[in-house]
Specification:
The chain has 205 residues and is an alpha+beta fold. The chain contains three helices and nine strands. The protein has a single domain, classed as Immunoglobulin-like, CATH 2.60.40. Helix 1 packs across helix 3.
Length: 205
């Protein structure tokens, strides 16, 4: 049965054109943004202390990655959680194969050969070697990696803290400390800095 005229006005219902929607291209960092939103706001925990920590953005760091003799780009984000941190890596322009992230002693990155990052770093009381704190990840033919992993025994706000160190993406399953002016397996490097609140807020709108 066809709809009756609008009895309140005595006129037939008018068809209102839908508002124009401005469309934006899908960004390469979309999976990364979704991962960050889940890390920061997907929990159903209503603990006021958790809400306060999230509001202040405490315990969140990021390390934008710069290619070391490569075209690799990406970002590492760490969130203090429980007995350690949750680490998220998103990177692109990688060759197919195995890779491993590792923390390094110095908060410096040299995009030429990466030696300013210093030796591999890890907490002194860890049962794992410094170069084995973060598991290896395999990159397929697309050259893109999206990794999220929990690492026990290190923190952002507490000790031992990663905030005064750098992070390096190594090609292969093993992490080495390079010798000056010699080839190494460094692919990308980043220095930790505060995660800007707007980075999450822009995707939450």
């Amino acid at each position: 049965m066809p709809p009756e005229p609008n009895r309140a006005t005595g006129a037939a219902a008018r068809v209102v054109a839908a508002p124009r929607v401005r469309r934006f291209p899908v960004l390469a960092c979309a999976p990364f943004a979704l991962a960050l939103l889940c890390l920061s706001g997907c929990s159903t925990n209503n603990d006021p202390s958790s809400a306060a920590a999230a509001a202040e953005r405490r315990g969140n760091l990021q390390a934008p990655l710069q290619g070391v003799g490569s075209a690799v780009s990406g970002r590492v984000v760490v969130v203090d959680k429980g007995d350690g941190i949750t680490l998220t890596l998103v990177a692109s322009n990688l060759l197919q194969g195995n890779y491993r992230l590792a923390f390094h002693e110095n908060p410096k990155c040299d995009t030429r050969i990466g030696t300013t990052a210093g030796p591999v770093w890890g907490p002194a009381n860890s049962a794992k070697l410094p170069g084995e704190l973060i598991p290896t990840v395999y990159v397929g033919m697309a050259g893109v990696v999206n990794l999220s992993v929990h690492i026990s025994g290190v923190h952002v706000d507490g000790e031992p803290s990663i905030s005064r160190h750098s992070i390096v993406l190594h090609r292969g399953e093993f992490v080495d400390t390079p010798l000056p002016n010699l080839p190494n397996n460094y692919i990308a490097c980043g220095v930790f800095e505060n995660l800007q609140p707007s980075f999450l807020d822009d995707f939450a709108k």
